[in-house]
């Protein structure tokens, strides 16, 4: 065992302490609260009962009796773990059923399931593009896409956020190279939707591949909850859609859906697919049942959208300006990290839990509250939120 004195004397200790001090001075210290869900949007946070406006469980599916039953049945039938990588003996039979179901759901030729959305992004982007290729990546893409681009060793060109002309000029400059265009479908901190029809057209015109990470669109957007492409009534065509079971679908796991050739290529090459263990049977069974539930349950999705409208209207009425967007993510711009923290603290004192988003999760000077809605929020709960935010905004001089 290392002696405390040796460890304390190392240059590492000073480094870690200085970095943490620095983060604290900038109001950027991170802390995990202890949280357990009680009922719908109610949770116990650090021992106190709170109303959540901070979960991506948009449809409340993580608590649904049908999905709990699917998990229990799978545990009884197949046990608790896959036991190996999918390429060895961990490719449980239910994987095939789930992947076929994802492909039908996303209207694509084929699909492939990964352990998480983060790993799907790493696997897809870093496998499709490599040294010598170009990735045009949106300035506000999720951290997992940013890391995926870096891991690929391709040349990375950052497009101004959802700025089609910026994408076009990067594509123009990359003629003669293989190009991947990579964007979130719904941006996780802004709640806005990427200009997918225009990006698909650009991809077509320049012979590029379009990869859309629809973590927040899947289950929420579109007539039947298929996500951002359906929101625009676009054909899935050659688009490579990444998604996650961890948000509206209430579970865990990532997937990619797209042309069969690309899925076959990923099956042969994606390292985040092989060098990790397959998902446990209960998770796979829940994921399958969750997609089925989306199809039978348009009412829950409709309730979510009524709640989104109610919150947006109410926040505008108290004088706040909001970024536009059709998703369940409603950001309230605040600016400085310290103000965002004070807003979140005041709300917490009033029993509403919604943490502040600060750099590097959002750009500097754009700290915000990231409110997320659920279908299971009641009208009264949303009214309470609006009234508290109105009061706190006045106290902080924001309106
Ligand atoms: C949450 C998120 C991911 C990661 O998904 P997990 O399944 O939670 O790993 C990827 N992309 C975006 C845009 C996300 O918001």
What is the terminal separation in angstroms?
A: 57 Å
The total of helices stands at 15
What value does the average pLDDT take? Answer: 95
Name the assembly state. Answer: single chain
* Chemical compounds bound to the protein: pyridoxal-5'-phosphate
Beta-strand content = 15-25%
Share of helix among residues? 40-55%
Summarize the structure.
It contains 15 helices and 14 strands. With 399 residues, it is α/β, with parallel strands linked by helices. Pyridoxal-5'-phosphate is lined by residues 116-118, 121, 142, 144, 184, 188, 213, 215-216, 244, 246, 254.
If you had to describe this structure to a student in words, what would you say it looks like?
With 399 residues, the chain is α/β, with parallel strands linked by helices. It has 15 helices and 14 strands. The protein has helices at residues 4-9, 11-25, 65-78, 94-105, 117-128, 143-152, 164-173, 196-206, 228-231, 260-269, 271-274, 281-296, 298-317, 337-349, 379-395; strands spanning 35-39, 42-45, 48-52, 110-114, 134-138, 155-159, 179-184, 209-213, 240-244, 254-258, 329-335, 352-353, 356-357, 367-372. The strands form three sheets. It has a seven-stranded mixed sheet with strand order 4-10-9-8-7-5-6, with helices on both faces. The protein has a four-stranded mixed sheet with strand order 1-2-3-12. Strands 11-14-13 form a three-stranded antiparallel sheet. The structure holds pyridoxal-5'-phosphate. Pyridoxal-5'-phosphate (PLP) binds next to helix 5. The site of pyridoxal-5'-phosphate has 14 residues, from helix 5.
């Amino acid at each position: 065992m290392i002696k405390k004195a040796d460890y304390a004397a190392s240059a590492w200790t000073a480094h870690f302490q200085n970095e943490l001090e620095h983060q604290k001075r900038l109001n950027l210290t991170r802390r995990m609260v202890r949280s357990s869900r009680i009922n719908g949007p109610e949770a116990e946070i650090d021992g106190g009962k709170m109303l959540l406006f901070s979960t991506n469980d948009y449809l409340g599916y993580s608590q649904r009796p049908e999905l709990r039953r699917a998990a229990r049945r799978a545990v009884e039938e197949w046990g608790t773990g896959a036991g190996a990588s999918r390429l060895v003996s961990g490719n449980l039979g239910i994987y095939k059923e789930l992947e076929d179901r994802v492909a039908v759901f996303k209207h694509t030729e084929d699909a492939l399931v990964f352990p998480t959305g983060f790993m799907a992004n790493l696997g897809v982007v870093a496998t499709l593009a490599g040294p010598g290729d170009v990735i045009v990546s949106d300035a506000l893409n999720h951290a997992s896409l940013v890391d995926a681009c870096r891991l690929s060793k391709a040349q990375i060109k950052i497009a101004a956020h959802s700025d089609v002309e910026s994408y076009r000029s990067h594509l123009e400059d990359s003629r003669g190279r293989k190009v991947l265009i990579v964007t979130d479908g719904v941006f996780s901190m802004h709640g806005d939707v990427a200009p997918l029809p225009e990006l698909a057209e650009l991809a077509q015109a320049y012979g590029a591949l379009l990869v859309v990470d629809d973590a927040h669109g899947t289950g929420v957007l579109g007539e039947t909850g298929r996500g951002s492409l359906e929101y625009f009534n676009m054909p899935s065509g050659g688009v490579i859609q990444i998604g996650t079971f961890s948000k509206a679908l209430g579970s865990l796991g990532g997937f990619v859906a797209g042309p069969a050739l690309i899925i076959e290529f990923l099956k042969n090459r994606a390292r985040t697919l092989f060098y990790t263990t397959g998902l446990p049977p209960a998770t796979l069974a829940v994921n399958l049942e969750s997609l089925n539930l989306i199809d039978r349950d348009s009412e829950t999705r409709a309730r979510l959208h009524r709640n989104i409208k109610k919150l947006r209207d109410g926040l505008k009425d108290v004088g706040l300006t909001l970024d536009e967007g059709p998703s369940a993510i409603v950001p309230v711009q605040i600016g400085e990290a310290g103000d965002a923290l004070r807003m979140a603290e005041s709300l917490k004192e009033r029993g509403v839990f919604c943490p502040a988003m600060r750099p590097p999760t959002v750009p500097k000077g754009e700290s915000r509250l990231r409110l997320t809605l659920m279908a299971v929020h009641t009208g009264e709960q949303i009214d309470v939120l609006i009234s508290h935010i109105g009061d706190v905004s006045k106290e902080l001089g924001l309106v």
